[in-house]
Write a structure and sequence with these properties.
Blueprint lengths: L1 E2 L5 H19 L2 E2 L2 H13 L4 H8 L5 H8 L7 H11 L3 E2 L1 H13 L3 E5 L5 E5 L2 H9 L9 H10 L5 H8 L7 H17 L4 H14 L4 H20 L6 E2 L1 H6 L7 E2 L1 H23 L9
Parallel strand pairs: 1-3, 2-4
Antiparallel strand pairs: 4-5, 6-7
Helix pairs in contact: 2-3, 5-9, 6-7, 8-9, 8-10, 10-11, 11-14, 12-14
């Protein structure tokens, strides 16, 4: 349901809450990821400036593409964040003009974000329009949830998982009627079997997206194939350990340098477990729509 320029008092209140949430999320103190700090340090060195001076006085001269690349780790909302906004909006949709208005309002505040460096020092990062636009754009507040999917979520999904389901529902994938029907059927089956879990919900969405599934029959066959493939890969796990320097650097050295064979097997077993649970859900008799 679109929020138009002629809004009710309730809709105005919702928009005010939305602006407050965005301001809080975008200006909260946070640790500066190593990859972002490194990129900023390199740019400052190129400009022959100190990091503090570069961030305060030169950063806003970079083009939008460069800024987006540098700050994507900081200004990409997590699914948990998306879920909060989805819970707030429910099935409401913001127009492009309203999104731009939010971007302009937040940018006009000229806020500075306290970011902690690995040294313990604090860097005051200016909140630029590119950063705000990226964050708001990836909340998908302008993407509608199909009415059938919204109604199914309301009927079937436990209260503590509705935000996640609503956030996942704001995806253009579900504008395909067959895929929307498949997801709705999955939610009905979870509710009927009392097997609803956040991880399984995300897995179902991920499998439909990855394998471009459009029917329960396709999903059933794909899960059987996935299980067989994972079992075969587990059998050769000892030859599949690898060293990933890129991941190690991306996560600041926190990721293990070596992916051991038992971790590889655990990875495949995880997918086998998820696929097996979905097989059990979709093997049962198709449920009647949940009422309530």
């Amino acid at each position: 349901m679109p929020i138009t320029s002629t809004t009710t008092a309730g809709e105005s209140s919702k928009q005010a809450l939305l602006l407050t949430e965005l301001e809080r999320d975008l200006t909260r103190p946070q640790a500066l990821p190593t990859v972002v700090a490194s990129a900023l340090a390199a740019r400052a060195e190129e400009a022959a400036e100190t990091l503090e001076y570069f961030v305060a006085n030169t950063l806003d001269t970079l083009d939008d593409v460069t800024l987006d690349l540098i700050f994507s780790p900081l200004f990409t909302p997590t699914l948990a964040a998306q879920s909060r906004y989805a819970s707030l909006l429910q099935d409401d949709v913001l127009a492009k003009e309203q999104l731009q208005q939010l971007v302009e309002q937040l940018t006009a505040q000229k806020a500075r974000i306290p970011c902690t460096l690995e040294t313990g020092e604090t860097l005051l990062l200016p909140l630029l329009e590119t950063m705000v636009a990226r964050y708001i754009g990836r909340l998908h507040l302008d993407k509608p949830i199909p009415a059938a999917l919204y109604q199914t979520i309301q009927r079937t999904t436990p209260a503590d998982l509705q935000g996640t389901a609503l956030a996942l529902g704001r995806d253009s994938l579900w504008q395909d009627a067959a895929r929307c029907q498949l997801l709705c059927e999955g939610l009905e089956r979870f509710a009927s079997r009392q097997s609803y879990q956040e991880e399984k919900l995300k897995a179902l969405v991920g499998f439909i997206r990855t394998y471009r599934l459009r029917s329960s029959e396709q999903l059933y066959l794909q899960m059987k194939s996935l299980i067989s493939s994972c079992e075969a890969d587990m059998a050769t796990a000892d030859q599949r350990s690898y060293f990933d320097e890129t991941l190690r650097q991306q996560y600041g050295g926190q990721a293990a340098d070596v992916k051991e064979a038992h971790q590889t097997r655990a990875h495949y077993q995880h997918y086998i477990s998820l696929a097996t649970e979905l097989l059990q859900d979709f093997s049962s008799e198709k449920p009647s729509p949940v009422i309530g």
